């Protein structure tokens, strides 16, 4: 196999860390949902998630002010709604109304769960040391919700420029992880 140079602007499509999420916030009476693909697990217990929310995004202000959000995990059947949330700003569009998303009250944070998503993680911001420099928030998952009817959900994975990969077959291999 011969490798050739690869454009640096496309590297994130090779390293994409996980499923595209819908990050929901609530601030000053407005709820919002943004598509988020730049996130990573940082710790198991308590679960810590690091994510980049650009200071140009409407959700940045809400997340910074309230220090809480919900990470909602959509499945492939919501692909168009996820793309629509990513292509529109919450500054000018009520994404829940415009794209047919159903807000549900969370139990520990003010941001809503999204009913159509197969799982939702209520989070609080626990570390902001990298926000000013990298727009990187560290979130602690306070409560997790999942639809037990969806045993192996097919999630979306952003590859860049409108391309997505869909999670497929699950394989099981021996693991020492408990």
UniProtKB/TrEMBL annotation:
Keywords: Flavoprotein. SMART domains: Flavin_Reduct. GO terms for molecular function: FMN binding; oxidoreductase activity, acting on the CH-NH group of donors, NAD or NADP as acceptor. InterPro entries: Flavin_Rdtase-like_dom, Flavoredoxin, Split_barrel_FMN-bd. Residues 13-163 form the Flavin reductase like domain. Its cofactor is FMN. Belongs to the flavoredoxin family. This is Flavin reductase domain protein FMN-binding.
